[in-house]
Amino acid sequence: MTNYICFIFLLCSLMEPIASSGQPMPGKAIVTPRMRVIVDNDFSGDPDGLFQLAHLLLSPSVEISAIIGSHLKAGDGFDNSAMQADNAARKARELVQVMAIKTNIPIVAGSNKAMPNDSIPVASEAVNVIIKEAMRTDTQLPLYVLCGAGLTEIASAILKAPQIADKLTLVWIGGPEYPDLALPPPNYTNPEYNLNIDIAAARVVFNKTSMPIWQVPRNAYRQALLPYSQLQVQIRPQGKTGAYLCNALESLMTRLTQYKLNIGETYILGDSPLVLLTALQSSFEADPSSSEYVIRLAPKINSLGAYEYSPAGRPIRVYTRIDTSLMFTDFFAKLSLMNR
User: Fold this and answer.
1) What does the alpha-carbon distance between residue 67 and residue 318 come to, in Å, rounded to a whole number?
2) How many Å apart are CA 176 and CA 306, to the nearest integer?
3) pLDDT of residue 258
4) Orientation of helix 239-258 relative to helix 324-339, angle to 10°
5) The Inosine/uridine-preferring nucleoside hydrolase domain covers which part of the protein (predicted)?
């Protein structure tokens, strides 16, 4: 214990103000990246992806290697066009412009279509970006691929270059409940929404690879409830970015009323755990220590998008509880600091 305390005091003594082009945080220390992330999300769909991206762009402990706009299910009500991935990349660029962030982060579109089966990868610039980043040898920063929708690009990258499987960790928002861990919600969709975007891709990731997976299934991502009151008080006043995010969500709420759908006074920002589990890991013995998970053998995903027990599955993390307090308070604070 004595040596540990001495180490802490030594570390604190080294934290002096530094003139830097990086992102300064309150206090004397300058936070620098300790991991790389590739963000893959359906930004032209549910606006929760835009909230997640804004939060990540404001998080100095991550180095964003690339942003990928991904497709939805064909005919999806959020974007029923044939150019969903291109539209998603455009929305990501729009957010970066609104936030006035000067960056050279590549923003690319993935495939506009799902994989034809679980053996044939799609071809896209995004797939090549993932492979190139995973194969880098000029950095020791660990790589996380953050998927808030379907798994088309990461599955295709693994099929095209199987050697990258042990060079990254996939954090995925998606998949139904595990029956012994949680019950599905009333009137639940089957298959689960994100898994159903590309069932073939999910079958590749779960059934055919050894890639580490941190999964946030439906029962966990539904915990990320943002009250409408907080949207108005904590987000809307925060400059152009706050207004942009608030308008994106309110626009959707208005559209839903046209279909006689009353969603009440909360909204599920289900993609935000992608930030919580990476940028907001603990200081020492780094890990998402304030959230809870169990270790499970990866289930086999069948052609209908359902789990099947597989004794040959490798161990994966399945998150059961997420620390929404840390996640949201950090987001609100970063928006406020940016607006200053």
Assistant:
1) 24
2) 8
3) 87
4) 130
5) 37-271
Bridge partners of 300, per DSSP, are 308
Q: With the CA atoms of 154, 71, 192 and 258 taken in that order, what torsion angle do they form, in degrees rounded to the nearest 10?
A: 160
Domain boundaries, the chain: 33-225+270-323
Per-residue burial over 66-97, b if 16 or more Cβ lie within 10 Å, else e, is: bbbbbbbbeebeebeeeebbbbbbbbbeebbe
Segments of the chain scoring below 50 in pLDDT: 1-2, 4-28
Calpha distance 168→36 (Å, rounded): 10
Tokens matching residue 153: 């690009």
Phi-psi region of 150 (alpha: psi -120 to 50; beta: other; left: phi over 0): beta
**pLDDT at 29 (0 to 100):** 63
Which residues of 94-248 form beta strands (DSSP E)? Answer: 107-109, 143-147, 169-173, 213-216, 225-227
| CA–CA distance, 275 with 2 (Å, rounded to integer) | 34
Q: Residue 333 burial (CB < 10 Å; 0-12/13-18/19+)?
A: middle
- Does the domain formed by 33-225+270-323 have CATH 3.90.245.10? yes
Residue 97 three-state SS:
helix
Q: pTM score, two decimals?
A: 0.91
For residue 150, which of 204, 99, 103 has the smallest C-alpha distance? 204
Q: How far apart are CA 210 and CA 47, in angstroms?
A: 31
For residues 112 and 91, what is the distance between their CA atoms, to the nearest angstrom? 15
